[in-house]
Design goal:
The complex is a heterotrimer of chains A (279), B (254) and C (258).
Chain A: H1 3-43, H2 52-63, H3 75-108, H4 110-125, H5 132-139, H6 143-167, H7 171-179, H8 184-221, H9 227-236, H10 240-268, H11 270-278
Chain B: H1 2-26, H2 38-50, H3 52-85, H4 87-101, H5 109-116, H6 120-144, H7 148-156, H8 161-197, H9 204-213, H10 217-245, H11 247-253
Helix pairs in contact in B: 2-10, 3-4, 3-6, 3-8, 3-9, 4-6, 5-6, 6-8, 8-9, 8-10, 9-10, 10-11
Chain C: E1 6-17, E2 20-32, E3 37-41, H1 48-55, E4 63-68, E5 71-72, E6 80-83, H2 87-90, H3 97-102, H4 112-125, H5 141-154, E7 159-163, H6 171-188, E8 191-195, H7 199-205, E9 208-212, E10 217-224, H8 235-238, H9 240-257
Chain lengths: 279, 254, 258
């Protein structure tokens, strides 16, 4: 009977070992590259490229040096990162809502799609950052400018993917819905939207990356606070370590946000991945 | 008949947008000082096309973009295909790519300026960095999803490794690589224009910023419209090339 | 004589194409009586599925008329349920088995308890137990098609239309499903219109077999099957009458295919 807890512990440890080994198989190359960077930077120091350790230290001291009650977030974090993230969130939410609604309408109603197609194609082709000067003219150097640019730039991917998802719905699924005599509303909410959701979610995922890029760029161009503003300010005052610290912060934020979204995606689209594997 | 109707509706769409725009400015709902009328924008666009400074700026931008894209492709595509074929390397490499892509390449513009100043080298290196990752990722993915059936058939014909790579893996990965090129082209254009807007010394973006600082929004709008048209032309050209070079890929996608 | 449940009169269907009009179905006329089991067979590509979709009100007709209880069908009518061939695309993967079966019952004012009861009864009738909370893709092909049939049964239809429902499963599963269908048909006392390319299956299951010609399809002959019920996979198929009927249908189908 005493063998049981030992067996459990051994099982748990080997599971841990397997998990560790799997994580390692992903991470080792990145680790090697970072170590290489560290070695080169300490061997032949350059003011422009500090060692990784310095950058990480600056990251901690600048952004994460607050007290425990404030979740270790420093005042700089609260002043700048919150502002940036708030803009990104607002802009992305607008993009998501407008993109999905318009995408559904254009996907379902063929005439509407033909009407809007040239305009949409053109809007998509304008690289969003080129709109910066216009955005500043229209909104001045305010948060609204950033939010506008983020929303406008991220919307297109969502729109196009939603449209694709709706238009390419399996014909059998729609025939089935009709044969079941589902009401229009039910056919829409229980069949059309779920069937298109893999495409829609893909569009939402890609748009997060675009939103982050536009958040940074719009702040590099014109802002009074935010991560981008912080970067430009320190670049102009030759505080290279702080610039790199902020770059690392962006990397962590990007990984965190993408990771969160991946979790959301896994939860909502369980049926899609499992079905793909089954077939 | 339906194709005609489609074109007609599309033209109606464009016309509606222009009319609404004109109306909003004429009735001063949109401030006429910051938002020029569509007619004015068209006129300025024509002026810009004839303007030497804009022309040379545009050429500069395009040249930078093509050079950087080319260099990135020449390195990333073979590396990606090789890595995708070797199962050992593709996981960690994909992870590195995802980590690198989490840093918006535009955030590195100040860093690049620190390194290279404001000249062409700065822009080229930035675009290389930004386009490298999607090219690499798509090449890895393309090589990885080659149907093992095909390589098995090739080996049963006693083909050597090199021949398999050249005759089987490469064509099978080509559609994915083509997608990577299309995505990278779009990203590259955004990055080069961003760099120009944020302080580079030459390029189309610089011209636009100059007009913004001179408070000529009509020229700014015109510049944006032209760049949009450029983007449209590039994506249409790439799609056409893709369909011409890889006709079987489009058919499979359906 | 009682008027037939389903009347198909001079049904025709054509498509415009680059090379002019393609006539898929020329002139199909037959009736289905209440409680009957009618099979439809024909050479490959003769338009069987198109015909069934037209009868079900899922595709528009170029000419002719389909009447259920004397009322012309323009869209899927009450009292008619359809089972499609491709269960993997007809059952919705984002819903559980129970939700799939219950989907046609919602939004009609049926109390929830009754819906649950109907779902249970339908799943039970097709021999499925304990799968209600699973998703369709977690089941085998044969079980998925049973779920599709259960969904049809849940609608308490007067007539069940089936489009080559057992074409995508292996032979052994097919035999089980055929017998299950016969059980359900007699238990529920409904009418079945069954489209198939499998001649043995058509004769084994039916009271009458409608044989179509090659495209453009017309009714070649309607053959009565007076084999005794209940049918058995071995006993019935060993009878000389079965062989004779089967050969007759085979001749007609192969003959028109040439």
């Amino acid at each position: 009977m005493s063998a049981a807890p030992v067996g459990v512990a051994r099982g748990w440890l080997s599971g841990l070992g397997r998990g560790a080994r799997e994580t390692l198989s992903y991470v080792w190359l990145l680790g090697v590259l970072l170590l290489f960077w560290q070695w080169r930077a300490t061997a032949s120091p350059s003011p422009f490229v500090p060692p990784v350790s310095d950058a990480l230290q600056t990251l901690r001291s600048e952004w994460f040096s607050g007290s425990a009650s404030q979740l270790f977030l420093s005042e700089i974090f609260r002043d700048n990162a919150f502002a940036s993230l708030a803009r990104a969130t607002q802009g992305w939410l607008v993009a998501a809502m407008v993109g999905v609604s318009l995408g559904v309408v254009l996907g379902v109603w063929r005439a509407a799609w033909e009407f809007a197609n040239p305009v949409v194609r053109f809007g998509m082709s304008v690289p969003s950052t080129v709109l910066l000067p216009i955005a500043v003219v229209l909104f001045g150097i305010t948060s609204s400018m950033n939010v506008f640019l983020i929303a406008f730039g991220s919307m297109w991917v969502v729109l196009v993917n939603t449209m694709d998802g709706v238009r390419n719905i399996d014909e059998t699924a729609m025939l089935t819905a009709r044969s079941l005599r589902l009401s229009r509303f039910r056919a829409f909410s229980r069949v059309l939207v779920p069937a298109a959701s893999p495409h829609i979610v893909t569009g939402l995922r890609v748009s997060i990356g675009i939103a982050l890029i536009l958040m940074v760029v719009s702040e590099l161009f014109a802002a009074t606070e935010g991560i981008g503003y912080y970067i430009v300010y320190n670049q102009r005052t030759f505080q290279y370590r702080k610039v790199w610290g902020a770059v690392f912060l962006l990397a962590f934020l990007g990984v965190a946000l993408n990771g969160l979204f991946a979790l959301f995606e896994t939860w909502t689209l369980r049926w899609h991945r499992a079905r793909g594997r089954g077939e | 008949m339906s194709r005609f109707r489609g074109a007609l509706l599309g033209a109606a769409g464009v016309a509606t947008v222009l009319l609404v725009w004109h109306g909003l400015v004429a009735t001063a709902v949109l401030d006429p000082i910051s938002v020029p009328r569509p007619v004015a924008v068209v006129g300025r666009a024509a002026d810009l096309l004839r303007d030497d400074a804009f022309q040379s700026g545009l050429v500069d931008t395009l040249r930078t973009w093509v050079t950087a894209l080319g260099i990135a492709a020449v390195v990333a595509v073979p590396l990606g295909i090789a890595a995708g074929s070797l199962s050992r390397l593709d996981r960690p490499l994909s992870f590195v790519v995802h980590a690198a892509r989490s840093v918006p390449s535009t955030a590195l513009i100040p860093v690049a300026i620190l390194f290279f100043g404001l000249g062409v080298r700065m822009k080229v290196s930035l675009v290389i960095y930004a386009t490298f990752w999607p090219l690499l990722l798509n090449a890895i993915y393309g090589a990885r999803q080659v149907d093992p059936m095909m390589t098995t058939v090739a080996r049963s014909l006693r083909w050597g490794r090199g021949r398999i790579l050249w005759r089987v893996v490469l064509p099978a990965a080509a559609p994915s690589v083509a997608t990577g090129i299309r995505v990278a082209a779009g990203i590259g254009l955004i990055v080069v224009l961003s760099a120009e807007l944020l302080g580079a010394s030459s390029g189309a973006g610089v011209v636009i910023v100059t007009f913004q600082q001179a408070e000529r929004p009509d020229f700014v709008y015109a510049g944006i419209v032209l760049i949009g048209a450029l983007g449209l032309a590039i994506s249409a050209a790439l799609s056409f090339l893709e369909r011409w070079a890889l006709p079987w890929a489009v058919a499979n996608r359906r | 004589m009682e008027s037939p449940l389903l009347q198909i009169d001079r049904l025709s269907k054509s498509y415009p194409s680059r090379r002019g009009t393609i006539q898929a179905i020329d002139d199909v006329t037959f009736h289905v009586g209440r409680g009957e089991f009618v099979s439809v067979v024909g050479p490959s590509g003769c338009g069987k599925t198109t015909l069934l979709m037209g009868i079900a009100g899922l595709r528009s007709l170029t000419g002719g008329d389909v009447r259920l209880h004397g009322q012309t069908i323009v869209e899927p009518p009450e009292g008619m349920a359809v089972v499609f061939q491709d269960y993997s695309r007809s059952l919705f993967p984002w819903l559980t088995v129970a939700s799939n079966v219950g989907l046609p019952l919602r939004g009609r004012g049926m109390p929830r308890a009754k819906i649950t009861e109907t779902i249970e009864r339908s799943l039970h009738a097709v021999g499925l137990h304990g799968v209600a909370e699973l998703h369709p893709w977690q089941l085998s092909g044969g079980m998925q098609q049973r779920v599709a049939i259960a969904r049809g049964l849940a609608q308490n239809p007067e007539i069940l239309l089936m489009d080559e429902p057992f074409a995508s499963v292996d032979a052994q599963t097919r035999a089980n499903l055929e017998d299950l269908l016969l059980d359900v048909w007699s238990d529920y006392g409904m009418t079945v219109l069954f489209v198939t390319h499998d001649i043995d299956e058509a004769v084994y299951l039916a009271d009458r077999v409608v044989v179509l010609t090659a495209s453009p399809a017309r009714v070649d002959q309607i053959i009565g099957v007076d084999l005794p019920r209940p049918r058995h996979q071995l006993a019935t198929k060993a009878r000389p009458e079965f062989a004779r009927l089967r050969a007759r249908v085979f001749e007609l189908v192969m003959g028109s295919a040439r």
